[in-house]
Every structure is written in structure tokens, then in C-alpha cells.
């Protein structure tokens, strides 16, 4: 870790015996995989448990007695270009679920210290969709915030619709039954339409294809389900989406472990990511995962379905990537301790290079420095 609050130059490291880059300051340490550029591990300085809020499927598999090594699609990974299943023709052409970006090795373009921040830039070419994705992560001295900038370049000579999601996923032990709650900057929501009562060994518990107001979703048994909570008797799988409040410039989504007093959250531009898909994998093993997936579309479905769909709630469902040009996206992620008695997030404001996080019912407030803003 850094001394006197100064973030050191990023270093090469490993995650699940695969190559990684480590960025750190006096507040936190982030590990980013070279294969897939996934945010895989995040820990706070001085945390005796070194709790990583991100989903680690390989570790969970080993804890259940299985064997597992590195896999793409871990922690917070990026879904470009594609979010969801592929068509038969795309599969035959080699395209995988959730696009190519999380499956490709990245070239490290720079690892440096600039303007009081540790900086790494990683780049990958996506050969099937003929795009180039560049990701830059920054950790600023003395801040609990990580800044992620992305640039997606079209290598083809025609405009095209793009499917893009930031598949931010939290997991056990940070995600714990009866302890971890999720909040989001929106109320208008819908459950995903489904035809099968189970997905694997997990039961569906939400009514299919129903509108509702966050956080109270309609249950299959006719009873309401509080989607903020992590169930105490897990054996469920849920899929739902929330439209980010159209009146806001910034969207946000958070996960708070009330017992451990730890909070992770994301802030992003609503015009870039107008949706948050909630994917809840709550098996009876208690190896839980929950996706807080801010995206260009409401659900992870094939691109034909997205492009041909009637707009949901009147909101856009994809972005345009111009010919031989590029689009950009920027978000920040924060990880911090919270005071005793804080049980929810009612609002997040990004003003004057500060993040203000409020629990109004408990009259609790956290202010974090966010010097680079959005």
C-alpha cells in the first residue's frame, strides 16, 4: 500500500494465477485482470477480513469442493458488443454470450503515475465485431473512488447499433442473506418475462413480465417481494430491470452490507446507461451473486430482440456507434466503510468534486472526495 496517501505506480500482479494489474493508494487496492480487463478484487486498507465485494465464481467453486482456475466473466466485467445470448449464426461465427470484450487478452498501453493518480490503460481488438475497446482506470491519492473511462472504436465503414453493459456483480461473503441491501436511482421497473419455473436448481419467485415500482416486486405466490433485501432462505433466481430516473443527470446503484458496515456503489451518466438490470443468483449453497448491471438496454437478450423491440418506458435500448469513429463512457465506483446505523442509500449527489451519500431515515451522511468527477 502507498505511504502518506500517495498512490504508487501500478504494478503487475496475478489473480487466480492469471496476469493482472494492481492499482492502490492509502484507501484501497484494486486488481484488474489482463484477460478481459475485469475489476476482479477490491479491498480496503486496514480491513482485517480483506472483504472483496466482487463476485468470485472460481473461489466459490473451490469452497464447495470443486476445482476451478481463472475464468473470464468474473467480478465486474464489461459486455461489449453484446449483452446476453447470441443467435445461432453468431454462435457459429464464434461470438459468445455477453460479447467479446470480456474474453479477449488486453495490451497494456501505459502503467504510470499522473497528476496525483495511479493510471493504467488497457486495449483490446474485438475481431468478430470489428471494434476496439480501450479502458483506463485511475486511483487518485487519498480517495475511495476508482474512475473508469472507456472508448469503443468502430473499425468498419458503417454506423451500427451497440449493446453495452457494465456487468458489475457483487458476491458472497460481502453479499450475505439478511445483511446486504441494494438501492438504485429509479423506481419504474419490470420483471423479466420467462416461461420455465426454474433456472438450474434455483426457483423463480417473481411474476413474469410485470411492471412494478421499485423495490416492491410482484411475487409468484401473490405476495410482494422486497427487492432491496437478500433473502434469508436462498434458493431463488431473479431477473428484473429498473429505468434510471429520467430527471437525473447521473444514475447510481449501491450494495450495502449492514453487518460489516461496507458499501460499494457506482455512479454513471444516465444518457450512457439508462438501465440497471438486476440479476440475482441465490442458490441454497449460500454462494450468492447479484448483478448491478448498468447498461444500454433493460435485459440481457440477443441483439435482434433488442433492436426489434418496442421501447420500454419510452427509453432508448441501444447506442449508435458511427462509422470509423468512436463513442465513450465513463463511470466511477466507490468502496467505503459506513457509520453504525446506516441501513440504506436514499440519494447520491456528485457536486463540487464530492460524492454525498445519504440515508435520510437514519440521518446518516457520507462525503467522499471525487476530484475527477464525471
Radius of gyration, CA atoms, in whole angstroms: 20 Å
* Low-pLDDT ranges: none
Largest sheet: 10 strands, mixed
Tell me what portion of residues adopts beta-strand conformation.
35-45%
CATH top level is Mainly Beta
Count of discrete domains: 1
How does this model look, in words?
The chain has one domain: Beta-galactosidase, Chain A, domain 5 (Distorted Sandwich), CATH 2.70.98. It is 5% helix and 45% strand. The chain has three helices and 29 strands. The protein has helices at residues 57-63, 88-92, 303-308, and strands at 11-15, 18-24, 28-33, 39-44, 77-79, 107-114, 117-126, 131-140, 145-154, 160-162, 165-167, 169-171, 180-184, 188-191, 198-199, 202-204, 211-213, 216-218, 224-226, 236-243, 250-257, 262-269, 275-282, 289-295, 319-321, 326-337, 347-351, 354-359, 364-369. Strands 5, 11, 12, 14, 15, 16, 17, 20, 23 and 24 form a ten-stranded mixed β-sheet that branches. It has an eight-stranded antiparallel β-sheet with strand order 6-7-8-9-26-22-21-13, with no helix packed on it. Strand 28 and strand 29 (364-369) form a beta hairpin. The mean pLDDT is 95.
Quickly list its features.
374 residues, mainly beta, Beta-galactosidase, Chain A, domain 5, 10-stranded mixed β-sheet, 8-stranded antiparallel β-sheet, 29 strands, 5% helix, globular
